[in-house]
Amino acid sequence: MISRQYLVDQIKQKKSFLCVGLDTDVEKIPEFLKAYPDPIFEFNKRIIDATRDLCISYKPNAAFYEKHGVSGLQSLIATWKYLPADCLNIIDAKRGDMGNTSGMYAKAFFDESAAGMSFDAITLSPYMGHDAVSPYLEYKDKWVIILALTSSAGSKDFQYLTTEHGFLYEAVIQKANTWANADRIMYVVGATKSTEFTNIRKYAPDNFLLVPGVGAQGGSLADVCHYGMNKDCGLIVNASRSIIYASNGQDFAEAARAEALKIQQEMQAELEKAGII
Amino acid sequence: MISRQYLVDQIKQKKSFLCVGLDTDVEKIPEFLKAYPDPIFEFNKRIIDATRDLCISYKPNAAFYEKHGVSGLQSLIATWKYLPADCLNIIDAKRGDMGNTSGMYAKAFFDESAAGMSFDAITLSPYMGHDAVSPYLEYKDKWVIILALTSSAGSKDFQYLTTEHGFLYEAVIQKANTWANADRIMYVVGATKSTEFTNIRKYAPDNFLLVPGVGAQGGSLADVCHYGMNKDCGLIVNASRSIIYASNGQDFAEAARAEALKIQQEMQAELEKAGII
């Protein structure tokens, strides 16, 4: 189990709060890998081998595997089995359904005896309220990561609506805080809105925030740290495409490592600046 | 392709607006089916055979299949292949992610060449806004069914927040109406809130509404019709457990048919009362 304290310790030890997003698209991986029986797993395996000392988390995006049906699911299961035990292994699935159904999804992703996988954490959509979250919280050694403020253009459609509890994304955080504490819940906060971190930290001072959108999606790591870091770091910053597709040649794993190292070094500087290490 | 007009014609012809929810739980199916190589598919096949003339739609719930990993996905694909072409075949997946990722999910469920399935419609969560929906709308012969007001207890957490555009669920409908019209978008509206249908019909006079929660979840069909029906019917009412688990003996398919027939007859009476047939 990856407890909050273990995660903080890993961040200090690895001097990194990087999550490598395994959004593995078979159309973007190096051609030579296609000779292997499971090219997606082969790609992920080499990315993991090349980056595991530089990151504290991996995050396969379920859609990229589901797209390939049975073989995609087999690649996902093989990838899960290969993920390092010292990392927070997140399935980015953004599920959100009523209680009975959420219980089934929780089994799929948290109970190895069901579908062959047991991730440490899952991303969830809050629209259906506590039903959509509570069945996952019954797994006492697992995390839920709830969408609050996302980084794509569509986030403006609803997340910034003004409600009786502030913006919708603020209402989500305030309500979800009543379901479990910062040892069990993280929030997704899009990095293109760095100044909003101040706002979010009012309601979620201790929670870890999973931050997509640094790198290919355009956010600034310095801004994220300036506004979003807390005394335990409290940030997991994801980069996917900028790392995993740094090269599409024979050297893709080395190129991925070089890119991850660059980010890790920036993160180390931020952790030092904040006095965390 | 199931166009809006075709769906209306099917409703008139079958005198039914019933959707049979294939929430197939291997722990609840008759014991004797477990001797078959794919018990879940075998169950679904017999339920479909017993009900296809009484309903206009089937809706497998993705979670129930994902729970079983590779074999569950194989059951889902086999079920999709067996679904009748004259029915609106919905995958109840409640996905909702940024554009790039939504495009992958759309392939998984809409493009047979990707994962072996091509459903007519998918349920989607609106939290991430238009990104979460637009990639599915690129499939011109497919429907999206967006969560508006759900029927479980958690719906109160956010869907009833008051925003500058009314309740959140009303804001969702008003915004989603700008993405596509009633030929492409349906909304999920929970049947335990019948009086809210009046409200929803203000914003979605022509859209079909997918109504879960009649039967096991406790909604009243008469109320749903009184408040929610439009001149084309405009309703697809789902029943899952009350039909598929009507018996767990050798007679489960006959019992499912009897239950579906009872609902179909109630629906016929409502359609006659409304002058639609």
TrEMBL record, chains A, B:
Residues 17-256 form the Orotidine 5'-phosphate decarboxylase domain. It comes from Mucilaginibacter xinganensis. Pathway: Pyrimidine metabolism; UMP biosynthesis via de novo pathway; UMP from orotate: step 2/2. SMART domains: OMPdecase. Keywords: Decarboxylase, Lyase, Pyrimidine biosynthesis. This is Orotidine-5'-phosphate decarboxylase. One of its GO terms (biological process) is 'de novo' pyrimidine nucleobase biosynthetic process. One of its GO terms (molecular function) is orotidine-5'-phosphate decarboxylase activity. Its EC number is 4.1.1.23. Pfam families: OMPdecase. Belongs to the OMP decarboxylase family. Type 2 subfamily. NCBIfam families: pyrF_sub2 (TIGR02127). It catalyses: orotidine 5'-phosphate + H(+) = UMP + CO2.
